[in-house]
Amino acid sequence: MVSPEPFPGSRGDEPPPVAPPPPAYGAPPPPPVYGAPPSGTGYTPPPFAPPMGGGAGMPMNAVGQPGSLIDRFVARFIDGVIVGIVGVILNIVLAFVSDSWLLTGFISAVATAALYLGYFAYLESTRGQTVGKQVMKLQVFGPGNVGNPTLEQAARRNIYMAFGIAGVVPIIGSVLGGMAALAAVILIVVNINSDPQRQHWFDKFAGGTQVMKVG
Questions:
Q1: Which domain holds residue 136?
Q2: Which residue among 85, 139, 153, 165 has its CA within the 20 to 30 Å range from the CA of 101?
Q3: Can you give the pTM of this predicted structure?
């Protein structure tokens, strides 16, 4: 019998080498590749979300910037024309239906004050905008810039519009009411120009309402 030849390169008295076993779990996965997602996976990257408070170059307040004095003046002027026309018609009607000038003056002062205050308080609390503010792309927000102000807050921030009710006092009432309204307007202008958030005294009296540019 012919003995088997030894494994090439080995001595006849040594056993043949054994091949190493394959890895138990296969080859390790390749490292992840950052960049484009692999094709065919159906993966859709999430949309970019800016950081809280606004990214670089973005205003910190999501609703815009505080309304400027010029924009607010023009808006108030537009509203004043609208309410003023209605007020003139109302006073003409009162003059015709009343025989006493004292009674006419009393009713006119109360009705006019209610008209001005009601116009601003109702529209700002229900829509956040009067007609003038809508034209000038302004909106009134409640404290914390969350939603519209309440009816009470809107009335408090516009309470100076009702100073004309002093006209119920004969002769000097109209003068006193006019002076009080003028003083309120001067205070508002000074506050808007000096306050970083463009809030006047009556905004703070209402709890922190604010007029913002939204367009």
A1: 65-213
A2: 85
A3: 0.68
